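Sample entry (281 residues):
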Amino acid sequence: MSKLIAALPMYDWPEVRGEIDAQWAQLRDAFRRRGIDAPERMARSNRDLPPVSGGIQDGAGKLIAPDPATLPPDEFDFHQLWLSPALLFGQTCWGPMELGLARHVQVVAQPSYDAFEGGQGELYSSALVMPADGGTSVGSPEDGKAVIPLDLIRGKRFIFNNPDSMSGLLGLTRDLEAIGESLGVFASCGESGGHRSSIVAIAEGRADIAAIDCQSWALAQRFEPAARRVKVVGWTTRRKGLPFISARATSADVVASMREAIAELGLDGSVAKQLFVERVG
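Predicted structure, serialized as tokens:
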């Protein structure tokens, strides 16, 4: 049994578990053909993370995360996953990467978002969604520049998924700053815990606007009934999408072999239309 772990948690909605499992099976088998000891199944909870006696330390011996064995076993702490020295293959967001995670991991590849409105190659954007009022949704601009309807969003209740999310908070914050505004344009800002929860909050009248990354928005249109009660009023600037990562301790040879395997799989044949890569490295 492999001592390494893998996970693709960012778009692992219950309705697409089979698709995500199929994605991993393709990657796992391609990795194994190159001699990589890839795990049979992905981690989906803290109990799937290997224990680290004394907690996880960085290269200088500084404690950066507790022992996964001490965490609630049925929950799934993504930061704990990303910092695990046993992480062979996972996916994160550039928000946490910019806030310090990049020191502890290696980027293996970038996914393609070509299959989703608001995506182009390795770039993605977020749909700005508000309650539907009978009007039509705004399409993603071809040039990938931000479309921020200040007249619609001023004085509204903004809800975001997580404070370190590029798609849900940081990207929109930067787009507002680029036009001389700030989060102060909103009457309030609140945290929902996830893009899907943000959509539900708007549909139920508990919030007025959220930024939902384009792949999550596509999933919501497939599976979340509340998505029918909101509409797209704008888009954030296209930015680099969610990178595939490995632990800093993963050897250069293994990382190179994973990149070769991903490139070999190509853009065609992705079960969920997102996994395989526009650019590696």
